[in-house]
Amino acid sequence: MGLEEKLGDSIFTTQLDALVNWSRKNSLWPMPFGTACCAIEFMAAVGTRFDLARFGAEAMRFSPRQSDLLLVAGTISNKMGPVLKKIYDQMAEPKWVISMGSCATSGGIFDSYPTLQGIDTIIPVDVYVTGCPPRPEALIDAIMQLQEIIKQESVRRPRKAMSIK
Amino acid sequence: MSELIENIKNKFGGKIISTQEEFRPRSVKVAAADLLEIMTALKNEEPFQFDQILDIAGVDFLNQKPRFLIVYILLSTAKNHRLIVETDIDELGSVPSLTGVWCGADWFERELYDMSGVKVNGHPNLKRILMSEDFEGHPLRKDFPVRGTTPPEKRYAPWDKRRTREY
Amino acid sequence: MFTFEKKKKDTMILNMGPSHNATHGTLRIVLELEGERIVNSTLEIGYLHRGIEKMAEHRTYNGFIPLTDRMNYVSPIMNNVSYALAVEKLLGIEVPKRGQYIRVIMNEFTRIADHLVAIGTNVVDIGALTNYFYFFKERERIYDLIEKVVGARLTTTFTRIGGIARNVPDDFESDVRFLLKEIPESIKDVDRLLTKNRIFMDRTVDVGAISQQRALEYGFTGPVLRATGLAWDLRKKQPYSSYSDFQFDVPTGENGDTYDRYLVRMEEMRQSLRIIQQAVDHLPGGPVSIDDPHITLPPKEDVYNTMEGLIHHFMLVMYGIKAKPGYVYFGTEVANGELGFYIVSDGQQYPYRLKVRPPCFAIFQAFPEMIKGHLISDAVAILGSLNIVAGELDR
């Protein structure tokens, strides 16, 4: 537009979407809902070698109100299902969900009476991570994929409301 | 015959229904009615001193009478020996609570009730421990299917399709 | 849902968990508070109940090993070894010496890894984050070794009935010696940071103490029992898997409080390193698994080149190991205490009934007694020091 030529380097024009998404995707605050083995690998991902802080997602918040990424790591049993649903409902928009590991994704090897066969029967999931448990690299990849998803969203067309019944 | 089993036989005489020395740890079988008395003696008296109860397991022999075999696994840290005490009960029978003998028996008995559906008489707080209160059936009975009695798709309503996210 | 018999007027009910950062996932504690002091509490478990015991009745003896990984997921190899030893006892077989030694080495490394997480997360809950990073560095190195030997980081499925899955790689010994050099450094670092730390001692000394008598009655085993002063260690008292070959001490505490548990765990890691040092120095040669076609798979060359090998492979894969009718209970000393497997066999290739005796289960039921009269923040410290692993607690 030539606006920058007149105003110099002090002004930077961009799209609002790009700005908002850029800040959203680089400051994901995960709420680790770790129940089982995957939580240990998640701890490794936060730990020294893999260092999730490189992707701006190291600020763990154990309160659903303060977080925007629900990281379900581990088996969810039928007894735990309502708890997970409640936590998801308590999170403020915008919110995303990563289902980490086979158990959270599909029940995994626990095809048994107390196990919920996949958390997507109760809450929507953005990124599924395979593995039992997934390696920390896989989790990092999932977070990068989620960042790609966030990049394509728009503030003017908010996602359809996750109405709570 | 090992010294331990011999001592038990001398002490309790006719109350011991049978003993088993082939498998480890050795086991004795007693009647459910005598269980409390025998367990109290096993804990407190000198040649036994079973100061720990490690586990209680219920084994369901579906088509046999009596149906359940209740297994008490004991350990003596003072004498460094182990013993299994078994008792048979049928489906409507019950075992006495051992919470008065070892306070650690509390949760094991609740688990026995939850998983095998065996009533425990005199337990202070006999309710389900692993499954939720509204769960029906007792999972470790042989007539309970491994995938449960309700099909998975009916356990929860599938997530509402209208809320599908658009990217 | 929860009712307390004597409900005082000025008490408050506080729900902790199941999603609380100090409960490590899946425990629920309902506290009755008077101010900030705990007067009563109720526990609720079962949020991670996955029906492992039921699934065992539908799996072959070898097929159950992957499920044992997921019981105490902080130290899976110890569960594998414990279960394999129980079944081997049922079958009446013994693994060759090399297999036993390798099991011991891996077992002790996993014990260290478990204690690293136990102490690391415990002090994170209290408020010291640095130690967690120091310890996780070592844990990653142990993971590297496990990955080299087994092929997976966490869910190892290390053992088979009658031995281990495959022989260790050639540079196993040098890797072990490297770890033996590196791990003591981190332990020393954390020792310097914590053991005489005034804040840490204020938070843990005389917090959550339990007497030896009560601990025994509750069925405590492992570091939590040893912290009360009783030197009860199955590796010493009822040796299995060649543990009688090694020199090591059994550390004990005095008061049975949170600080003693920390000290016992720290010392146990050093003793584990001693065991590993002796085991790797005297590592025997020879096979790692027994040579019985009804129990272990034949070598791949035999399967491809000989008729018998092919048949044995087929029969074992299709029908599994058959144990004679009977029962066995075998307990081993894992990081949290005695992990026992009670197996009833009816002569089929599946266990008729398999009961796991998790160490946490007995320990956690004493939790209300331990936290009574303490503050909420103490309850967090005590819970961390017990190292409750929900996968094992609920199975």
How would you portray this structure in words?
The complex is a heterotrimer of chains A (165), B (167) and C (395). Chain A is of the alpha/beta class and 165 residues long. Chain A has helices at 3-7, 16-25, 37-46, 81-90, 102-106, 136-151, and strands spanning 30-34, 69-73, 96-100, 127-129. Chain A has six helices and four strands. Chain A has a four-stranded parallel sheet. In chain A, helix 2 (16-25) runs antiparallel to helix 6 and helix 3 packs across helix 6 (136-151). The longest helix of chain A has 16 residues, at 136-151. Chain B has 167 residues and is α/β, with parallel strands linked by helices. A five-stranded mixed sheet of chain B has the order 1-2-5-4-3. A two-stranded parallel ribbon of chain B has the order 6-7. In chain B, a hairpin with a 7-residue loop joins strand 3 and strand 4. The relative contact order of chain B is 0.13. Mean pLDDT of chain B is 82; it is low at 158-167. With 395 residues, chain C is mostly helical. Chain C has helices at 52-56, 65-69, 76-91, 97-126, 130-150, 172-194, 198-204, 212-218, 223-226, 234-237, 258-281, 300-305, 307-319, 359-364, 367-371, 376-386, 390-394, and strands spanning 12-16, 28-34, 37-44, 159-160, 163-164, 326-334, 337-345, 353-357. In chain C, the strands form three sheets. Chain C has a three-stranded antiparallel sheet with strand order 1-2-3. A three-stranded antiparallel sheet of chain C has the order 6-7-8. In chain C, helix 6 (172-194) runs antiparallel to helix 11 (258-281) and helix 11 packs parallel to helix 16 (376-386). Chain C is globular. The B-C interface holds B 22-25, 27, 51-55, 57, 59-60, 71, 73, 75, 77, 80, 82, 84, 102-104, 106-108, 111, 115, 128-133, 139-140, 144, 146 and C 1, 45-46, 49, 51, 53-55, 57-58, 89, 214, 216-219, 221, 230, 232, 237-238, 326-331, 338, 340, 342, 344, 352-353, 355, 357, 361-362, 365-366, 394-395.
